[in-house]
Protein: TMM82 protein
Organism: Pardalotus punctatus
Amino acid sequence: MFSLGSWLPALPGLAWGWALLDALLQGLVGACAVSVLCSLLKVYLYVQSVNNTERQAEKEAIAAQRPLLEPLHVLVLTAVLALVGSRVAALVALEFSLRAVSTILSLGKGTHSSQLYLLCQYSLGCGVSCGLSFLLEGAQHRSWNLALAAGLAGLLALHARRLARHVCALYELHSRARYCGICILLLASGHGIPCLLRSALGLTFAVADLAAVQLINRDFLSTAEAVRFWTPLTICYTLLVVYMQ
């Protein structure tokens, strides 16, 4: 495995330091993914509540500025994702995927619960983290790749947060005056944000689940051990899905 530390002389504790850096970068990418999800949800909920007189309290709560809470949320989530590691993150991603499938099936075909967007935040961070751990394993200059991914994810999260602030501050004025292209676009097609989020989350968790299965199977010495682990787990979740129906 090559990383930033592969170019430096071997020193006591140096490998541990680079492993910690990689874990923090993975956690940061996952935290930025959660930040993007939260910002887009805020935009959608605010746009939907503008012309609804019964949701004015919700609109005011969404528009309330929290300048320190959002960066603190990203920092705390980065630390948590770095501490749990890829194995625990894999189990969390698998558990949420099965729970989401059972919830969607219990709601009926074509029906989606908006609560899943709120419940999947931590699981989304875990899914992105374990997916990166699997995709970049054995890659040359792993730390450089993670640093690039963290930079791009941070840039995307920053723009999504700016969009949410712009919408909360100026959407009502701009949508009435037909002044701002972004607000006009949201006025015309803002209802499509949930569909966009469903597609993005579906793709993310599909990759995360494949990576999670591979990461978990590595701990077994033989196929028989893997079968003994997965068989009762599959039976339990199948019975749970049937029960929820």
About this structure: Residues 19-244 form one domain. Confidence is low (pLDDT under 50) at residues 1-12.
